[in-house]
């Protein structure tokens, strides 16, 4: 019932966007403001929040069997897609300035050194920066680095409580 309600809300939202010409994501099976890639919907969020808040915010989207999570990345192509999405929404300011990374859904908060995605999938692809992960029990969340960084598209483990950065959510496409 809840999933049908969500589909109905998605359709109503899509019809509301008809006049603006932004029907592309609706016809793809993604809600407005989400982007389709390989049967999943992705959305960039520009507000800077902690890892826990980003994770919670993602899970407020979706319904039934299709709730969003912080983005999980399972291939070089998907890493490239996420990197390009990140780059398209950020400016060219100093990459060393705080907040110029994005949260991704990889964490080892349950067992040190065993990284898993927040959506429950295994870490079958990684793009660690050289020397990472290196944080021990203090660094349990993972960021993707700024597009202007020499380590662009690479990942680093960091403190989940102290950083405030942007994030990308991912959920399964409804109609794919």
**Low-pLDDT stretches:** 1-25
- The secondary-structure class comes to alpha+beta
First-to-last CA distance: 20 Å
- What summary fits the major beta sheet? 8 strands, mixed
Radius of gyration: 16 Å
Strand content: 25-35%
Mean of residue pLDDT values: 79
Helix tally equals: 4
> Got a strand count?
10
- Measured as a percent range, the helix fraction is 10-25%
Overall body shape: globular
* Topology pattern, helix = H, strand = E: HHEEHEEEHEEEEE
Task: Give structural notes.
- It is a single chain.
- By secondary structure, the chain is α+β, with helices and mostly antiparallel strands.
- It is built from four helices and ten strands, in the order ααββαβββαβββββ.
- The strands form two sheets. Strands 1, 2, 5, 6, 7, 8, 9 and 10 form an eight-stranded mixed sheet that branches.
- Strand 6 and strand 7 form a beta hairpin.
- It is globular and about 40 Å long.
- The two termini are 20 Å apart.
- The N terminus is likely disordered.
Topology:
Blueprint lengths: L1 H15 L7 H5 L6 E3 L2 E10 L1 H8 L3 E2 L2 E2 L1 E2 L5 H14 L11 E7 L8 E2 L23 E5 L9 E4 L6 E8 L4
Parallel strand pairs: 6-10
Antiparallel strand pairs: 1-2, 2-10, 3-4, 5-10, 6-7, 6-8, 8-9
TL;DR?
The protein is an alpha+beta fold and 176 residues long.
């Amino acid at each position: 019932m809840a999933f049908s309600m969500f589909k109905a809300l998605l359709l109503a939202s899509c019809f509301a966007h008809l006049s603006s010409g932004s029907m592309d994501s609706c016809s793809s099976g993604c809600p407005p403001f989400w982007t389709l890639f390989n049967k999943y919907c992705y959305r960039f969020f520009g507000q800077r929040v902690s890892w826990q808040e980003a994770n919670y915010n993602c899970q407020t989207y979706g319904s039934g069997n299709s709730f969003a999570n912080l983005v999980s990345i399972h291939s070089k192509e998907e890493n490239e897609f996420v990197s390009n999405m990140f780059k398209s929404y950020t400016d060219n300011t100093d990459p060393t300035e705080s907040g110029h990374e994005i949260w991704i859904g990889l964490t080892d908060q349950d067992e040190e050194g065993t990284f898993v995605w927040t959506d429950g999938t295994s870490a079958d692809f990684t793009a660690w920066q050289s020397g990472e992960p290196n944080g021990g029990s203090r660094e349990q969340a993972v960021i993707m680095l700024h597009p202007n960084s020499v380590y662009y598209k690479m990942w680093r483990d960091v403190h989940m409580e102290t950083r405030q950065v942007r994030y990308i959510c991912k959920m399964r496409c409804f109609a794919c």
